[in-house]
Each structure stands twice: as structure tokens, then as C-alpha cells.
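Postdoc handover notes: sequence design on the structure in folder B. Input C-alpha cells:
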């Protein structure tokens, strides 16, 4: 695979365009993607960047690039199975809940310190 196809995907040579027409470029790209996916499956660092769907808790690791099976929360970037996700992110819900509790705790602290100073 030519480096410009990977590093600058918007840049194609005439040879690349002929490869598209002859369907050889797509075969090269399929081989490259297969190789990358195998690497991700076998590399501890790459696997560590994957997600476990906390909605179904299956031990299968999912990744944002799995467009057919995974969806990513636009706020916190957590991934879920498409079949599990219902437009409500439990991680975002927890973050909102903590923020609300922290704000309420701060209000209580301010109110109690005002009572003590009075």
C-alpha cells in the first residue's frame, strides 16, 4: 500500500484511480484493514483502548471504528453495542448525577457555614 493513501487519504494519483477502476485498490485496502484488525485483536495496548458495553456487560471488546455494531456517545465517547444503546448514556447520567450531588453538597456547606458565622 502506498504511504500517501494512508497518510493523505484525500490525495490520489492517476495510478490510484486506475487501481480503483480495476478493483485492485479495494483488494489492497481490504488486506490492510484485515491486518490492522488482527493487530488490534492481538495487541494489549490496542485492546486496552476498547470498550465493554456496560449496558449488556458482555466481555466482548468493542471499538468506535466498528460502525456496523457499535455506537459512541457524543458527550463522553464511551462505546456501546448499537442493539443495546437507547440514546441514554449511563456514564453521562452518572456524571450529571455526581455534579448535581456536588452542587447540592456545596450549597449545604455554604448554608451551614453561614449559620455558624451568624
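Designed sequence:
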Amino acid at each position: 500500500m502506498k504511504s500517501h493513501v494512508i497518510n493523505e487519504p484525500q490525495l490520489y494519483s492517476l495510478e490510484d484511480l486506475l487501481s480503483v477502476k480495476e478493483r485492485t485498490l479495494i483488494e489492497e485496502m481490504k488486506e490492510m484493514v484485515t491486518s490492522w484488525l488482527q493487530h488490534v485483536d492481538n495487541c494489549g495496548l490496542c485492546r486496552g483502548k476498547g470498550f465493554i458495553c456496560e449496558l449488556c456487560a458482555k466481555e466482548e471488546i468493542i471499538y468506535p471504528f466498528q460502525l456496523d455494531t457499535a455506537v459512541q456517545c457524543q458527550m463522553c465517547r464511551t462505546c456501546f453495542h448499537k442493539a443495546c444503546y437507547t440514546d441514554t448514556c449511563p456514564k453521562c447520567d452518572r456524571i450529571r448525577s455526581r455534579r448535581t450531588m456536588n452542587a447540592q453538597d456545596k450549597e449545604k456547606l455554604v448554608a451551614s457555614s453561614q449559620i455558624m458565622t451568624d
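Context for whoever picks this up: The mean pLDDT is 87. Don't rerun without checking with the PI first.
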